[in-house]
Predict the structure of Glycosyltransferase family 4 protein.
Amino acid sequence: MKDALAPSPRRPSPLRVLVTSYRSHPHVGGQGVYVRELARALMGEGCQVSVASGAPYPELDEGVTLEKLPSLDLFSTSNAFMALRFRHLTSRADRHEWAAHNTGAFGEMTAFALRLEAFLAAHPGRYDVIHDNQTLALPMARIARRTPLITTLHHPIAIDRDFAVAGAATRMGRILTRRWHSFVEVQARAARRLEHFLCVSEASRQAYHARCGVDPAKVCVAHNGIDHAVYYPDPSIARDEDRLVALASADVPIKGLDVLIDALHALKSRDRQIRLTVIGQLREGQAKRALERAGLMAQVEFVSGLTREAIAELYRRCTIFVSASRFEGFGFPAAEAMACGAPVIVSDGGALPEVAGKAGIVTPAGDSAALAEAIAGLMDDPERRARVGKACAQRARTAFRWEDHARAAIALYDEILAAREGAPLS
């Protein structure tokens, strides 16, 4: 592929890019973060950027146009079955979303793609290229035949599904979990029909090949960036001596919180009273039961509803940041903690070793004993902690930049546009 910094002389000026995302919550999960930062970086590279999204909608910079494609928002409705109105019957997207939701499936991706298809049909020629954020619905393949389209791949949801099914307590729970994740097979079929991908890690690229049959040759890898105006080291802030920080957005096995709890339990048995702050909510579930069994409730606190600035402050004060996930397509929390100068310990799940590079410490996913040894080793060696934290901050500063991600995307846009014109790339 051509140099991302050398635009094609045939590129429209300015390049009109539509970034699409079936939902883009600005504060929960990474979808809204990715959409906001990608749009900002593309605009910084001279593109004219619009975003088409279903609700929740992203927070966007001035100059980025938001095209709202509302869903039925059935998750916030007290009686989803009765939410269908006569006007919805004329909409294929509304019918699909309602039927999927009320039969225990998740149909938002296909419904969004159908709405996007109708929106583009009503505005032909408005955009030069579409950059989709992992919708992976079958209508996207039809859209791609009319307008150049690339898809960002984060990680295959089939991995989440398998962990969720394995973690279900009952047979009925496993059946319902599989039904809800029925969109996974649709995403795999859609991925095989699409041609151009930007993937946020090499681990994710290989996982999409293994899980969805995506040809790795169709996938360009470019790591996500970090907002370095928020996540940065502050040498004036003293680090705590005995506090771990982790982020667990959900009490599910894939996030590896159980592994970290087991590691803390092992350290407690050696009279090591290490405190843990988890960014997330403690609900009735596996994590709470594990903490109670291990007698760790007094050592572990959960905090939620924090601003990005408050999270960065935690990263600057913690002794060590830990990510014990069994799989991450990238791993924003680890990268952001590194950017704040925190020494990080990560598992080898998915892309986490790519994020840590040679700066952080890597342990086998699911291995609580190895994690306990790594934590104890860093806790007992302040000089080593300082070296690891400094190396982490340096890696994050150079390796995770949104402008680099945007330039990789623009190189793909140029490649596709040139191919459509039938002209060789220079």
